[in-house]
TrEMBL record:
Compositional bias of kind Basic residues: 1-10
Organism: Actinomadura parmotrematis
Region annotation (Disordered) ranges: 1-30
UniProt-recorded name of the protein: ATP/GTP-binding protein
Organism superkingdom: Bacteria
Length: 103
């Protein structure tokens, strides 16, 4: 029998519950953002992705991002990871009525 492998445990930050949180600050052309990855097991509610305007169903891994100057994080948005990575290459999503011309 092979020996048991030692596994490193990650402890949650003190004073908080719900597990460890990994945040990073990203600088982009639209300013500095704080980005937090959300695991699929922790995604309990559906959200609307502002990048593609599609729903992120419960159980799907995604990212939460808010401006770095918004310390409270009250203006957080939930994004698909590919939508977040492509936000600089995409133009704004224009909502059109059903029979509106596309030009």
């Amino acid at each position: 029998m092979s020996p048991r492998k030692n596994r490193r445990t990650v402890r949650p930050p003190s004073g908080g519950g719900g597990g460890p949180r990994f945040e990073e600050t990203e600088a982009g052309p639209d300013g500095d953002w704080i980005v937090r990855a959300v695991a699929g097991a922790n995604a309990a509610k559906p959200y609307r992705c502002p990048g593609c305007d599609q729903e992120i169903p419960p159980g799907v891994a995604h990212v939460v991002a808010w401006r770095a100057d918004d310390r409270d994080g009250e203006d957080r948005r939930h994004w698909h990871r590919p939508c977040w990575n492509a936000r600089g290459r995409r133009g704004p999503r224009v909502q059109r009525s059903r029979n509106a011309p596309r030009y």
